[in-house]
Each structure stands twice: as structure tokens, then as C-alpha cells.
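Hi R.,

Here are the chain sequences for the assembly we discussed:
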Amino acid sequence: MCGIAGLIHRGKSSNVGEELQNMLQALKHRGPDSTGYALYANNDGQNFIMRFKVGENVGEGSTSVNEDESVYDERKKLVDKKLSELGATIMKEEKLTPYSYRYEIKYGKDLMWFSQAIESIESVEILSIGKSLELIKDLGDAKEVSERYGLNKVQGTHGIGHARMATESGVDIKSAHPFWGYPFADVSVVHNGQLTNYWNNRRVLENKGMRFMSECDSELIAVFLAEKMRNGATLEEGMKQSLTGLDGVFTYFVATKDSLGMAKDTMAAKPLVLYESDDLVAMGSEEIAIRSILPQEIDTYDPFDGEVKVWQI
Amino acid sequence: MANLKTSEKKTKAQSMGMHTEVLTGKTQQKFFNPDEAENFFYWGTHKVDFNKRTELDVKDMDCKEANNKIDQLMGEGYGTIVIKNPQGKHSLGVGILNKLNLIFEGSLGYFGVGSIDGPIVTVNGRVGWSCAENMMAGKVVIEKNAGSCFGAAIRGGDLICKGSVGARTGIDQKGGSIIIGGDAGAFTGFMMQRGRIVVLGDVGINLGDSMYDGTIYIGGKIGSFGSDAVEAPMTKNDIEWLTRKLKVAEIGNNVDLSKMTKVVAGKKLWNYDALEPTEKKGAI
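And here is the predicted structure of the full complex:
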């Protein structure tokens, strides 16, 4: 059981950081191990935002191996060196925790090649690349993660988030959601459910050159959609293909720089409550997530089995 | 276990005609005893006065506090309780085993009014998953939409949703009636055992999958039939029952009942057929 939440403001911006924090905090009981945010912020759109980690959070509850922090600094230096070799210019850098960084970089070539080069450094993982996507995930509940990364003042148009109960993989950042839709800028995915044809799909996708960073079945959705889009499918087409291509039970959200989508498996085995108005769509695993930002009486509904919906900002 | 097949001594229930058939299955059926029923009461129930009305704002309460407060108000004799600001909270109004007129001004989360036996409940908003799960008796009316597993395993009573419902409506239903004004999702009537489901709109795939018994009436399109579910002819009795029930539900005035699709179990399960024949006939 995990909790997922998402919202999109249509035609305006809002404090999506705080809104998503409230929604995910309301779902804490569904997933206390880690929390993740994919926020689509009002950045200037000039440079890529790259968020990456050079190690794991080894705090309470973590299943990761403890490492000396000096190792993190060494890896960070290797990243900087690699960026220089790739012809990328670091415009701004922020050290957010001992193990995670946010860089603004100027880069104009292939992101797939770029990502593979950076991630060839041991234990370095790019959490996201995009011009508006700010993807943050760490151990702890929504409020703790938000405070750790200063998210409750992020202004933007939309976002998706996840409160994770670790079941089939470890309590660590690499298994936490959201997952970046590598190698596409500004694509992210969160998922509630279980996929039963993970390994079959993973082998096929890896043979096609796609990359997996974890053994979390949810990562498959991001890679599956990315591969479809790489071959020319639209986001919505890729999502519709996922209803038959992915086996198991799932409700997932996917976001791009200007859209938010949801898909529900054909068994409708995982919950989702949806609120839709002219200027706002909010959805979550439970209605209390939506109520945390819309306390007034509202009309909500459960999408049906096999339903796919996409909204634009 | 007594050999019921050869026993000459009839129970009081059998004498009253409540059980006319001799069991041949492997069951341990307990017969209904009218003497016990007259004196039977649930522990912790209350005698209430419907004319005694109060309001309860649960905005700042968790579900346990709210349910305890409802119980306290029933203990004080309030028979009509209006709940303000439920705001999608889970498990509100559960386990009420006495008569009560309970009105929610807003929406409920998961497991709302579960395991109830007797109250009349109105929800002016929407309900989440598993509303009225294990309901024994009473009437529950949802004015808007409902989530999945609506009326899971209900044993009796009338459960009405005027909007649309999610998947697995009436899963494991063992009696009572579920009436939906709008559409219903996949697996409606999944593993249904008794009772009736009415959907005035469309239903999703696998309707009545693995149903043992009971009857489903569909007004709109059917995504697909599930395993063991088959169409049956509408009878005069069906139309009379639907007319009466839809009147109680206050929906479907303009529906041509003769055009509804009736769905029943198409497979005989020997053990199930042998277990409770009289009750089965009563349910159908």
C-alpha cells in the first residue's frame, strides 16, 4: 500500500510545493518509509535543472550501507569533471544534503548519452533532468522531506507525489518515487500497485538501450512510457498501451512540463479519487488528500477500470 | 452433529414453515429460533426517539472520537443525528446496531457506515471504498458517487447510490439490495451469493464474475459477462420487484424496466445448492 497524489492548476500558478506536501502528509498512513515530489516550478526555462545523488540517506530505517561522507565529495568531483568533458556548463550548484545536489546546467546535446556518462560514476544517480521539473525524494514523511529540501514555497503549475511503503525493494532513495522518465526532460511517474511482468519487460527494454536504476517495479512504468515516446507515441498513447503492456494492479500518475495524466488498470484494483474543475484537477489515493487542500464540500469520483486521462496546464 | 435427514423431531422453526426442506449437505446450519429472537438484543444498543434531533460537527475529530460521540448521543436518546463536516474521513458511522436516522452533510472516506444493522443513513455527498460493508439491515442512500467495493458482503437492507459507483460493487454480496442510479465499474457482483443488484446505467467488464446466486439487473450497456454469469428472461415478478424497489430508492422513474437485462448464475455449485435451499429460494 502506497499513497499517491497529484494536482494541476490550469491557467495559473500556485504554491504547489505546500499543496502537495499537505496532500502527501494526509496519506502518510499509506506509506511512512519515504516521500517523493515531482514539482513543475516556475523556472526561467533557460537551463536544465539536474538533481542527482552521490549516495544514500543512511538514517533511521534505511536499508542502505553506511558510507563515509568523504566518498560523496569524491563522487561529486567526478561528476563535475564529467560535466566538463561533456561540454556542459554549471551555472549554479546547491548542496542540499550530504548526498544530494541541485545543479543548473547549460547543455544542448543528447540527454541519453549525457545521463549514461554521468551515471557511469559509481553510486551516482540522476534523479531528474528538466527545465521545470524539480524531483525530490528521500526517507521520511512529506513534512520532513519538504522541510529538508525547502519545498513548501515552490511556486508552480502542477506536481505529483508519493508516500511509499517499501514492499518489494529496499528503504532507500533509489527505490523511492517519483521516477524520472529517462531520458526525457521533465517527465516523472508515481505508482501505487504491483507489476507482475516487471522482469520480462525490463529485459526487453534493457535490450533496447533503456536504463533501470533500481529493482522497484514502479520504475518500469517510467521506462515503459519513455520507450514508447522515444518511438513517437504521444504521452496519452503510451499510457493507453501500458494498460495491456503492463500486467498487474496499478494506478499511476505521469507528469510532463505541461501536462498531468492518470491511468488505472483494467481490474481497477487500486484506489483513486479525482476532483476536476475548470481551473484545478486534484487526485489522490484517498479523498482526505484532496480535502487537505479543498476543505469545502466538493464533488469527487473514482475513475473506472482501464481509464486514462490527461490534463494540460 | 444430528442426522437431520432421518430425525423425526422438527424444530420450532420447521413447524412454523420457515424450514421445509431436509438438509443433505455437509453443513452445520443453525435454525432460527423465534423465542430467542424475541428476547435478542445487541449489547451496547440504544432506544432512541426519532423526534429528538441534534447536530454534530466532526471537523476537528478523528473517526474514533466522532463514532464515540455518535454512540454517546444515541445513549442520550437522540434518534436523528446530523453530522456536519465529515470531510472524507474514514470509518464514520460504523457499527450502529439500532434504529437511527443518521444524516451526513458532506462526503465520507473509506468504510463509511460499515457493519450496521438497522439505521437509516443519508449521505449528501460522496462515499469512498467499501461503503456499508457487511450491512445487515436498514437503508443507506448516497446522493452522489461511490467508490469501489460498494456494499461489499452486505447481508441485508437497501443500499442506494444515486450517482455512479466504482469496481466490484456488491462483491461477496450475501443478501439485501444494491441500487445504482448511474454507471458501475468492472466486476460488479463479483462472487455474489444472494440478493439483488440494480444498475440503471452501464456496467464494466466481467459482470457477475464467479457469482453463485442472486440476480443483477442492468439498464444500460454491459462491458462483458464474467465467468458463470448468464442472461435470463425478465419476468412479471422481476418487474414488480423493480418497480417497488426503485420507488423506495426514489430513482429511475423514467426507466423502461422491461428492457433491462437480467443476469443470474449459470453454473450449479453442488455444495452451495445443498447447503441452504430454503434461504436460497427466499432470496430469489
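The first helix of chain B runs from residue 12 to 15. Confidence is low (pLDDT under 50) at residues 1-7, 23-29 of chain B.

Let me know if anything looks off.

Best,
T.
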